[in-house]
Amino acid sequence: MSHAPFYKLLFLASAVALLGGSAALAAARASNRLAGSSVFVATNETTNRVLMFDLTSTGEVTPTATAFMTGGSGTGTAIGSQGGIALSGAQALLFVVNPASNDITVFHVDNGGLTMVEKTSSGGTRPISVTVVRDILYVLNAGGQAGATDRINGFHFTDDGHLTAIPGSNQPLSGPNVNPAQIGFTPNGKALVVTEKATNMLTIFVLDANDAAGPPMPNPSSGKTPFGFAVTKRARVIVSEAFQDATDASAVSSYQVDILGGLHVVQPSVATTETSACWVAITEDGDFVYTTNTKSDSVTGFSLSSEGVLTLLNADGKTATTGAGPIDLAIAPDDTAVYVLTSGNGGISVFSRNMTTGALTPMQPVTGLPLSSLGLVAH
Asked: What is the span of the domain harbouring residue 184?
């Protein structure tokens, strides 16, 4: 494996020491982007693939992708879930769900792209979302077949990407046919959150000393149809609410998870004034939140206080206009760009981001992706 990442870090450290202050930070960010950043998308085709798009020095997405086969099967149709692909930066591993073949593919990320490590059963039926922290992975299985139930399942993984099931980690959700959308860890890795669209519940699972999830603890959502979410470093959970796709009725709520797995509303249902708020992302610095509005073809931005209070960036709720049917979104690791997967036209809408105000400015979009695509991460 190349030693380029080490020398890149050495160069960035030297730049910070020589330049100092914000100028050094800006130079380091630019250098980091020049050194091979990428956006990854899972296609969810019947023969599932991961598409890797390189980023330019200004954060734009190059129009031609490199494809990597997962060895598994997707549904070939769109799935309403967030987190179909996840990245573990510490180990340089990428995890992808294969919803139709009921398994997870693990790739190693290197300078040349992706190298497949293995494909492992998800421990359930129709995996739609994965989440990782440290050396732990949990997958959300959404049922979808006769006799199948909605469940989560946990794994430990090695630095080279091999998965081992965690005994006792396979747990049901709050009930059958809850139509779940996403699974995600709290920052300390001690609890999991799952959104349930059909029951309007946020279900919490507390992990034991062996990282096995305990029984489900359902909590009522502030608003209807909780969908996607993101978690801050302070364990604030920011959840979108699609309100059953009612016109201009969607919202975003803020919660706090306590050490026992309790979920407490910090700020209930802040209106986006748009339709079908579904996917959510938070900037690395934790100061801004963005959600895609699938049936309004837009992104709504919020500022986020340290107390978890959300404030709309734009009074009309429209921070940016996207391609048709925006779903997953990802924020560049340096917070300077936002990428939005658009299911209606098979594209990626690209925006540069003002670091101070959170405003989004459109850049050249990319098209030609399968309409079934599921999951988006920036690396």
From this structure: 4-378
